[in-house]
């Protein structure tokens, strides 16, 4: 048995910015699909947790389709709006509610009435908006900005995140009551490296999707290239696999994809192999400081070298070490991601709102620079007179 989920018009764009297909071939994936379809039959709020590029929106769409709800599926990226805009975008506003609000406008909740609202990157939602979202979920109605009248809603909410919300709750960046309300029905979407039997079926799915557009016929994966795909750890998950296959089809010869056609470039050394041991966390490593510093062996990871440098700084009596280390990390990550806030937040594993706080504190972001980015999937919201 094998099931494939795809986005509507999934081949409209040449390169993937999100996972556009999910194949359920691996036994673990089939069990996940069964779990998702059982959840879909209820009206429970769902929290989908998974790394970026694993197909969280595809799971949300499948929940909507399987639920039988007649209304629309509306997808909104909570990290795509500034804190000043997201309130009006989610909940709507009345005419004159703020400067520039010349007419009443429905929000995303109203646009999804009768259907499903998918809130991606829910961890980026500011605390003040978390309170309002919790009230909407409890009272099943929304109050627009500038209004005191509630509008009844029939909306199924599916939220998704690639961060650990439990840790965000501990750090007081996310409300505990909202976390428990969202996770009535939880779905953990495993990364591609944990479902290896899905890798080759997904690769073949992408080959079929791209080969005709490139004027090719019956492209094959060589045995060596299949082995390379299976041994790679896929830090970018499904969307990385799609882009690797697309590139391979462009450069391959005689309609056979060889290992040299696969652009497999892990972001870090720890991504090079799924079997490679994970380096110890910094706090655990620092707790093991010994009187005699051991030499870093040839197989040491970059994190090992960093811990060694921290030990030297601690031994030298360096002051303000925490602030200086944090500043160095924020500067390095922001530069590495070419000053892209969304990418930097994902690399660091924090929300975009948390990142903006750090950027401002370390002088990398002024108020005039804090501009919103476009939503990844704009949905038309009708203007209301």
Main sheet attributes: strand count, strand direction, barrel closure: 5 strands, parallel
Using only C-alpha atoms, the radius of gyration works out to 23 Å
Number of domains: 3
Estimated helix fraction: 40-55%
Structural class: alpha/beta
Which homologous superfamily in CATH is the superfamily of the largest domain?
P-loop containing nucleotide triphosphate hydrolases
* SSE pattern, N- to C-terminal: EEHEHEHEHEHEEEHHEHEHHEHHHHHE
First CA to last CA: what distance?
51 Å
Beta content:
5-15%
Return the CATH class of the largest domain: Alpha Beta
Give the helix tally: 15
Lateral strand order in the biggest sheet: 4-6-9-3-10
Number of E-type strands: 13
Description:
By secondary structure, this protein is α/β, with parallel strands linked by helices. The chain folds into three domains: 3-192, Rossmann fold, CATH 3.40.50.300; 193-271, Helicase, Ruva Protein, domain 3 (Orthogonal Bundle); 282-369, Orthogonal Bundle (Arc Repressor Mutant, subunit A). It contains 15 helices and 13 strands. The chain has helices at 27-40, 56-67, 83-91, 108-111, 127-139, 165-170, 176-182, 199-211, 223-231, 237-251, 282-286, 302-315, 321-336, 341-348, 352-361; strands at 3-6, 21-24, 46-50, 73-77, 104-105, 116-120, 141-143, 150-152, 156-161, 185-189, 220-221, 256-257, 383-384. Strand 7 (141-143) and strand 8 (150-152) form a beta hairpin. Helix 1 packs across helix 2 (56-67) and helix 14 packs across helix 15. The protein is globular and about 65 Å long.
């Amino acid at each position: 048995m094998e099931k494939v989920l795809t986005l509507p018009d999934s081949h409209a764009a040449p390169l993937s910015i999100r996972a556009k297909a999910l194949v359920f071939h691996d036994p673990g994936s089939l069990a996940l699909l069964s779990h998702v379809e059982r959840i879909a039959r209820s009206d429970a709020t769902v929290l989908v947790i998974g790394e970026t590029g694993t197909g969280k929106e595809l799971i949300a769409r499948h929940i909507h389709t399987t639920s039988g709800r007649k209304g629309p599926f509306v997808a909104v990226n909570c990290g795509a709006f500034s804190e000043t805009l997201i309130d009006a975008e989610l909940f709507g506003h009345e005419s004159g509610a703020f400067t520039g609000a010349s007419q009443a406008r429905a929000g995303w909740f109203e646009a999804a009435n009768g259907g499903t609202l998918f809130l991606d990157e829910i961890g980026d939602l500011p605390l003040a908006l978390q309170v309002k979202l919790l009230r909407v979920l409890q009272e099943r109605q929304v109050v627009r900005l500038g209004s005191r009248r509630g509008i009844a809603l029939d909306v199924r909410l599916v939220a998704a995140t690639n961060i650990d919300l439990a840790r965000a709750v501990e750090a007081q960046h996310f409300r505990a009551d909202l976390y428990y309300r969202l996770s009535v029905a939880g779905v953990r979407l495993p990364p591609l490296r944990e479902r290896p039997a899905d890798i080759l079926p997904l690769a073949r799915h992408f080959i079929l999707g791209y080969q005709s557009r490139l004027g090719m016929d019956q492209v094959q994966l060589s045995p060596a290239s299949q082995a390379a795909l299976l041994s790679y750890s896929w830090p970018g998950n499904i969307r990385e696999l799609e882009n690797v296959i697309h590139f391979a089809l462009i450069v391959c010869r005689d309609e056979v994809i060889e290992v040299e056609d696969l652009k497999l470039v892990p972001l870090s050394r720890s991504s090079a192999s799924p079997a490679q041991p994970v380096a110890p966390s910094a706090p655990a490593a620092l707790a093991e400081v010994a009187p005699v510093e051991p030499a870093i062996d040839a197989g040491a990871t970059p994190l090992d070298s960093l811990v060694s440098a921290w030990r030297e700084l601690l031994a030298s009596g360096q002051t303000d070490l925490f602030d200086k280390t944090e500043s160095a990390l924020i500067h390095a990550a922001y530069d590495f991601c070419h000053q892209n806030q969304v990418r930097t937040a994902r690399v660091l594993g924090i929300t975009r709102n948390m990142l903006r706080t750090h950027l401002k504190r370390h002088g990398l972001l002024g108020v005039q620079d804090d501009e919103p980015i476009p939503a990844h999937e704009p949905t038309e919201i009708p203007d209301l007179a």
